[in-house]
Amino acid sequence: MAPLPRWLATTVCSPPVGSFTDQLAFLFLSPCPQRAVLGAVDLAFVVASLAIVARRLRGGGGDTGDAPEREALLPKPSPSVRPFRAAVLYALALGASAVFSAASAVLLALALFLLPNTPWRVGESALLFVHFVAHAVAACTVASERGAAAAALPLHLRVFWLATALGGALFSCSAAVRWAYGSLLVPDDPLAFVGLALSLPLVYVAITSSSGLVADTCAGEPTEYTNAAVPVPAPATPFDAASWFSFTTFSWINPLVSKGYASDSLAADDVPTVSPGHRAEASYALFESNWPTQGSRHPVGVALWLSFWPRVLLTATLGLVRLAAMYVGPSLVNQFVEFIRNGGTTWEGLRLVVILLVGKAVQTLASHHYTFQGQLMGMRIRGALLTALYRKSLRLSTGARRAHGSGAIVNYMQVDAGTVSYAMHGFHALWLMPLQIVVALALLYAYLGPAVLMTLAVITAVTVITAFANKLNLAYELKFLGVRDSRIKAITEMLNHMRVIKLQAWEEKFGGKVRDLRQTELGWLTKIVLFDCANTVVFSSGPLAMTVLVFGTYLAAGGELDAGKVFTAIAFFRMLEGPMYNFPQTIVNCMQAFVSLGRLDKFLSDGEIDRTAMQRVESSAGDSVAIKVQGGVFAWDVQVAGKEKDGQHDHHGAENGREEEGPEMGTVLKRIEVEVRRGELAAVVGTVGSGKSSLLSCIMGEMHKVSGNVSICGSTGCVAQTAWIQNGTIQENILFGQPMHTERYMEVIRACCLEKDLEMMEFRDKTEIGERGINLSGGQKQRIQLARAIYQDCDIYLLDDIFSAVDAHTGSAIFKECLKGILKNKTVLLVTHQVDFLKNVDTIFVMKDGVVIQSGSYSQLLKSCSDFSVLVDAHQSSMGVPGAGEQAVHVQNTGHSQATTVSEKTPPVKFKSRENGGTSDVAPTKEAGSSKLIQEEEKESGRVSWRVYKLYITQAWGWWGVVVILAVSLLSEGCSMASNYWLSYETSEGTIFSTSAFLGVYVSIVSASIVCEVISTLFVTFVGLKSAQAFFNKMFDSILRAPMSFFDTTPSGRILSRASSDQMKIDTTLVFYVGYAMSMCISVVSNIAITCQVAWPSIIAVLPLLLLNIWYRNRYIATSRELTRLQGVTRAPVIDHFSETFLGAPTVRCFGKEDEFYQINLDRINSNLRMSFHNYASNEWFGFRLELIGTLILSITAFLMISLPSNFIKKEFVGMSLSYGLSLNSLVYYTISISCMLENGMISVERVNQYSALPSEAPWEVADCLPSPNWPSRGDIDIKDLKFEISRDGMRRRLSSSSPRVPLVHTCLDRGLPNRLWLRSPCRTAPHKRGETGGT
Fold first, then answer.
1. Of 585-589, 1175-1179, 1184-1188, the least confident
2. What pLDDT, on a 0 to 100 scale, did the predictor assign at position 211?
3. Are the CB atoms for 364 and 1113 separated by under 8 Å?
4. Reduced 3-state DSSP string for 800-825
5. Compositional bias of type Polar residues: which residue ranges (predicted)?
6. What is the pLDDT of residues 793-822, one digit of tens each?
7. Please, are residues 944 and 531 in contact by the beta-carbon 8 Å criterion?
8. Sign, Cα dihedral of 246, 249, 250, 253
């Protein structure tokens, strides 16, 4: 075999002397000209890209347009778009370019540090630098094309990719030839094959993307969900309109930061909207489109991965770039030490400083975009999950509703969705942190040799301990989550039935149940936190143990330690502290996310209402039947495992192959045969429990249809037996989303007998109704929901016992004006016990034991149906029984003319009404300036008060706890500094005199540092848990003692938000924030002092930069604090709306209002996402600037080290100073971030504390007024000069009465008078102004 030409086997750049063919072969196959040609291609691409950008800037850019604020419910991509293919192309293009760029950056750093100082290193470094810049520009170009709806990728980009692939092929050909001859150039030739493999995807993208790479935001993610027929342009958001420089430096959020700083407060309207592709509807549409159609054990995880894997790939690439740039600084420590010790040219020193500056700047840039993109992905995941959970709650079957309950679903929305969204970003740490450790150890191996392998023993021990701890911790997590769900469910039940609890004086009983659950929850939480503390101590002490073992092994093997090796190793070991410290928490977060995913899987795969149980048919001219049930057999909660219902299953339904776990019950309705003709008034009667309400439910499609057919012709409206009222004004409840038509509206008000009620209210129909109609009487709620149904103008009305809560006079008026008046041409199916009205209905259905036993007219049934005759006779006998009104009450009211005496056999209970001398009973007041009963949620503004900080840190053990934490933190930092000073002192002369003394002192100092760490962590943990429990007890006790008016005017979502998410933050997050903040502040001061001690003149530059730090911090915290508060304020309406919808889901479905309620939910979620998005952006805006300032401090110090005279430099501390300085920028950032996170976390303390000092009821027991042991002795009730203040309608009433001991007392007051208030007055749930009630 002929020998290889010299120019092919070496790196020479001189061309051979020979023929033109030899010259051409040299040009394309020799390593040196190959690199020159490839570098020229890279430079040409960069120049072309800059020219195109400059031309666009001169042209003013293109038009921007976004989707409208309110978009379609479930928008679908255009049929011409192929989202999966677009996603693949986008991911290939962006991923390959980013990997090329990151690999070039890593190889550039290695070439500068490891290659000898020859011309080849200069050429190799120049090529790698140009390659890094070119592929970075290519990645940016790909990302910039995300908003170009169907545009092809730029021609110059595709040509560049093809040229890169051609160059990779030439490199690989040369490498293959050298390989065949056994003359490989290492590592160039192996890397050539890798480069060719990476360039092949770019060739595919370049060829196939000429007609458009993407048609959406990112990898198949929809950007525009709008009606193409009616385009509604919207202004571009600051994020969308940002230039690349603004996007890169987060400058696009400057206006919001400036506004927050200038005003010291932000309103919700001050915060811009989020991009269309980041809204909840877009994220949910993507999530739903990727829901697995085949059976899957983890459908939520699969759908999230298929939906967001391009974002995962993007954040992974940014993480790799950050990881690569992270090693530049530690690799320079030894070279700086050698330069200072041995001297060198100015150019060499400047080269080191420039490389340090660029490396740290790239690390800062990649780090913050990695975090921001991860948080953005998490935000979109949270939006998708919240939307999916709400949508699922609208369609849950009855059994599933019972199994989960409102409280558990609140936890799914508040906690589980947040846990999963956070972990989807954080799971990168599961592979990035081990990779960071492996690369650091590999680089350490170059300095310390086989001694580095001793670190494997530490890593193995740490891994085993962590695996064992996490196995136990996972079981504790499951127990903790279960108990927490039970606590939230118990609190939800209490809030929903607080009036009953207070009437029965059951506060202590129910409060004790919640406290017991909280104690159990705190027990599991304590175990979890202690395991977290143990993991933290093990991982944080791991690098220290590694240092001792590696240095000891290296010295025992005969190696010599000098300052360069020691502090290079220290710098690398410092890099291990972060991953080893955070890795246990990452594992815990991922385990929590795994548990939460399981809970979400179960809920989103649970049973839904069978939409085929009821069929809506089109009306025809000859069809006179409105409601028809044939052979119907229906049941509650019966689920058939794996059975598909006519092939129609929802994406989140049973097609996943999951067996339903709901309880199986017997059939409720059997052999149902019902037919109601159009325009007919039909009634359903029967004894209690005969199945009347169930019949209406089966017609509405709410029950499981075992067999038979149900068909409805026309739109439906219903009035449920239990009134469902929304939190809003009376007018909003009646309109129910329909436009206002004044004439019809007033007609409905008259027909439902609401005129008199509205007259008595100060703001009439603008009066706001409390949560679930809590400030209305039963009759008022029933008539309002009847008015709501009538105003919708439906074809068919299903009315369930609408007369149950109204008096006879009002009932008669409603029957006449509504059923026989405004609804005379409608189809009405009425469930009733009022036999008097049955003579005027067309058809009567008699039910018994779940069966329609007979139907017909009133007269027919009296003759032929004995069960119906029994019902009629029972009603007539109850109305005419002697003594039925025997104990009635004479009612007199001076403000009205009516006075009724039912019986006078017993002394009457007289009501005297007097106001201002007895001249008036009703005195309207105009003190109230607003009709709103439910006010906007209270939100503090400005800085979190120092009183809140003091309240939290002194809650457990007063100021002594703070002193102990501070003292232990000082000791720990002192030990850490002492260990490094000892290393610096021992290696200052180049050799270590006594190995045993050196290691003995070092081990002692390290051990003391670990002990201080253990003490500090445990103490902070116990202080935090005790404080958390104290805050919960204060809030819960305050809520229990709050008067009923507080619950009338406070949505339960506000209370639940504080009891769940805010309390969770106090339990698990603030536990560590205070200790971290103290210790990190001490570390910053020590790091700056040590960094500047070598070249003390650097203080002159450092002080202004530190002042700039403080300036940025003040601007940032004003905005971040307000955005955090707005996050909390906008989170509660999401829960309020869900709780309200969950209770009224059957009504919503019957009226066909799912889309409207879904849109309201989207608006509220988007409002919360808007605050989260800009809060994330402001965090990275701040962090990016802080880390750049830290990089400048380090670079200035390094520059002064190489430029100042030797008498200014303390050479023995150069390595130590640099090793501390390398971590300074991130340390300063995390310190100030922790302080800001602490302040934002204190907002949770602030919110919880708001409900810890609520106005209280009178004491439950008054020592001077305790009743005698034999009370009550007679059963009399005395009411003396009792005055009511009723703020909702501005009326005051004063009543006095005395009721003797009688077996039964009737109160018959005119409609609208305070019947319920009088009955509630002995129970102290009525709003007393003065007077007293008592009994004997």
1. 585-589
2. 43
3. no
4. ECCCCCCCHHHHHHHHHHHHHHHCCC
5. 893-904
6. 899 999 988 888 788 888 888 888 888 888
7. no
8. negative
Q: Percent of the chain beyond pLDDT 70? A: 74
* Range 806-812, long-range pairs (CB < 8 A, 24+ positions): 806/753, 806/779, 806/782, 807/779, 807/1311, 810/753, 810/779, 810/783, 810/1311, 811/837
Which residue has better confidence, 4 or 1186? 1186
Percent with pLDDT over 90 in the chain? 4
Cβ contact 834:848 at 8 Å = no
Cα–Cα distance between 1036 and 1252 in angstroms, integer? Answer: 7
DSSP helix/strand/coil, 504: coil
Do 575 and 364 contact (CB within 8 A), yes or no? no
pLDDT score of 1132 more than 60: yes
Tokens 């909660």 belong to residue: 637
Distance between CA 528 and CA 523 in Å, rounded? 9
CA-based Rg of the chain, rounded to a whole angstrom?
Answer: 38
* Residues 275, 276, 278: CA angle, nearest 5 degrees: 65
Q: Tell me which residue of 1018, 1038, 1040, 1020 sits closest to 1030, measured CA to CA.
A: 1038
Which of 393-397, 584-588, 631-635, 1081-1085 has the least mean pLDDT? 584-588
The C-alpha angle with vertex 81 and arms to 76 and 87, in degrees rounded to 5, equals: 100
Query: What is the pTM assigned to this prediction?
Result: 0.67
- Distance (Å, whole) CA 1070 – CA 1146: 41
Cβ(1310)–Cβ(896) under 8 Å?
yes
pLDDT tens, residue by residue, 847-881 = 888 888 888 888 888 888 888 888 888 877 766 54
Whether the CB-CB separation of 1191 and 1085 falls below 8 Å is answered with no
Per the omega criterion (within 30 degrees of 0), is the bond before 1043 cis? no
What is the H or E stretch that residue 1232 is in?
Answer: helix 1224-1250
d(CA 821, CA 816): 6
- The pLDDT tens digits for 1313-1328 are 455 555 555 565 555 5
Helix or strand or coil: residue 705? Answer: strand
Neighbouring residues of 953: CB distance < 8 A, sequence distance ≥ 6: 961, 962, 1027, 1074
Residue 580 token pair: 């080893």
740: left (phi over 0), alpha (psi -120 to 50) or beta: beta
Residue 624, φ and ψ in degrees, nearest 5: -105, 5
User: How far lies 625's CA from each of 511, 618, 940, in Å?
Assistant: 54, 11, 60
Cα separation, 366 vs 1184, in Å, equals 10
Distance between CA 272 and CA 927 in Å, rounded? 37
Edge-to-edge strand ranges of the sheet holding 667-677: 615-616, 704-712, 625-635, 667-677
The confidence band for 791, taking pLDDT boundaries of 50, 70 and 90, is very high
**Shortest CA distance to 32 belongs to which of 6, 10, 17?**
10
d(CA 557, CA 1154): 75
3-state secondary structure of 398: helix
Token pair in block for residue 1099: 């203080």
Q: What is the pLDDT of residues 494-520, one digit of tens each?
A: 888 888 888 878 888 888 888 898 888
How many Cβ atoms sit within 10 Å of the Cβ of residue 982?
A: 16
pLDDT at res. 925: 37
Torsion of CA 1099, 1103, 1105, 1110, to 10 degrees: 150
The residue to which tokens 């040590």 are assigned: 1090
| The two structure tokens encoding residue 1259 | 């004491």
- Joined tokens for residue 931: 């009709």
SS3 sequence, 281-303? HHHHHHHHHCCCCCCCCCHHHHH
CA gap 194, 437 in Å, rounded:
24
Tell the burial category of 793 from Cβ atoms under 10 Å away from its Cβ (0-12, 13-18, 19+).
Answer: middle
Give the H/E segment covering residue 830: strand 827-831
Pairing of strands 843-848, 851-856: antiparallel
Cα distances (angstroms) measured from residue 788 to each of 500, 751, 801 = 27, 12, 16
